[in-house]
Specification:
Layout (H helix, E strand, L loop, with lengths): L2 H16 L6 E2 L12 E7 L3 E8 L2 H6 L3 H8 L7 E7 L8 H13 L12
Antiparallel strand pairs: 1-4, 2-3, 2-4
Helix pairs in contact: 1-4
Length: 122
Amino acid sequence: MTDSIQQEARAILDRLTFIPFEDCVPLSRDFDEIPTRLGLYAFRHRTEGLLYIGKAKNLRDRFRGGHKAFLWGWLDRYDPDEVRLAFVTLNQWQKPGLSYELETLILQATHPPYNVKIPREL
């Protein structure tokens, strides 16, 4: 794995982690604030931090169809106002599989509690 991919993963993780909570997207039914682009996303809790990290070919459609993190957050009795989404869009013309590599590096670095299976090292 190249240093540039590791650096890009670090930059994405920093963005997902350190964007102010108030600037993250609140949970909704339609997620109109989220673009219909390839990207990585994070469910974040206001005080507990990262709950789940994932990737999607179409970020908005990924949430409109539901997501297991919504159910887990409900089961854990999180206040929906305390959970938001952060995302980073990716260039769709980047090398195939790059989003998987980036997601894997970020998961290995963070181990969010709702990511059940964290990929082995690349």
